[in-house]
Prior knowledge:
By secondary structure, the protein is of the alpha/beta class. Helices cover 37% and strands 15% of the residues. The chain has helices at 3-7, 11-17, 59-71, 83-94, 109-119, 134-140, 164-173, 186-189, 224-237, 243-254, 256-275, 294-300, 315-325, 374-385; strands at residues 76-80, 100-104, 125-129, 146-152, 177-181, 199-203, 217-221, 280-284, 307-312, 330-331, 341-343, 364-368.
Amino acid sequence: MTQNEISKAGFETRAIHAGYDPDPTTGAVIPPIYATSTYKQDGVGGLRGGYEYSRSANPTRTALEGALASVEEGERGFVFASGLAGEDTLVRSTCRPGDHVVLPDDAYGGTYRLFDKVEQAWGVEHTPAAVSDVDAVRAAIRPGRTKLVWLETPTNPLLNIGDIEALAAVAHDAGALLVVDNTFASPYLQQPLTLGADVVVHSTTKYVGGHSDVVGGALVVRDHELAEQVAFHQNAIGAVPGPFDCFLTHRGLKTLGVRMDRHCDNAERVVEFLTGHPAVTQVIYPGLPEHPGHVVASRQMKRYGGMVSFRVAGGVEQALAVCERASVFTLGESLGGVESLIEHPGRMTHASVAGTELEVPDDLVRLSVGIETADDLLADLDRALGPR
Length: 388
Ligand SMILES: Cc1ncc(COP(=O)(O)O)c(C=O)c1O
């Protein structure tokens, strides 16, 4: 298949074949790990395929960037040493001192910390607003100064849903770009650029990599001019991943579709189990009809994902005990790997927002439901929640 034919193929075909043709010299089916910092030039300025130095470009990275652009249906993809490195590069590419950004009022704690403690010191201000409330996001915009409307959907860890199409219209009316952090949904379940977003952000550490063995980030953009700006800053700032990290992330991407379907199957079983459990006061999952974002999620997502949050009767002590008693669910931060994880957002991933407007309830437990045997996951949760 040619890359042109691949670009029109289905999701799984693009995830496996986009961005790389078998190596013309050896026929290698998988992009080799190009462990090289520099490239021989055929005479001064005579580059082979545009490669001169691996901060600027490396073939293992190029293959991953092409595949990510294809699965997100964007103009161009860029990868970074971490999700936060990608976010910082985007802010520097699009904002200047005096500019302003609207953030989700329950953004990932590290994203909030980046804006609150780093970008603010360089003159970029932010206002939190609820992603589920289009009017609140519109009201948070500062006309002429807001350059980015930042959206996570579903959010981390409260799984709130923002309407990508409606928020793209709000951002564009104000002359701002809509940025969607698509980490929780993954490109298999949701493609924000097709709904009007301008930039997709990923922590590829999560579902895209999928095996908890590599940290990375990505930006995918829709517009050629913005792509040029990001490309310049990616090279000028230099927060790029090495070729081995790119290889691992790309290997993960190839199986994203089958993994996500199993994550969703298992999450649905977990939700059903938790919903009937007396020690659980609330189950938060966009697939539940009573979830306030259910209708929007059904419109813009293929399925509802592998993340489940729930609140525990008995408050913080009980929530911590559940986290500590679980054993198939490993106590740990991060998400999106094949193994199930459990965590207490208030004390772990979201400790950096304690005492701020973004603080999360202290009886909240977050699950990243993995792809183990579902019955083993339910038995583990039953044990962890204690006697009925
Ligand atoms: C939704 C979301 N966005 C961004 C990030 C930051 O990514 P990284 O940890 O790869 O820097 C995370 C990390 O947990 C996340 O959950």
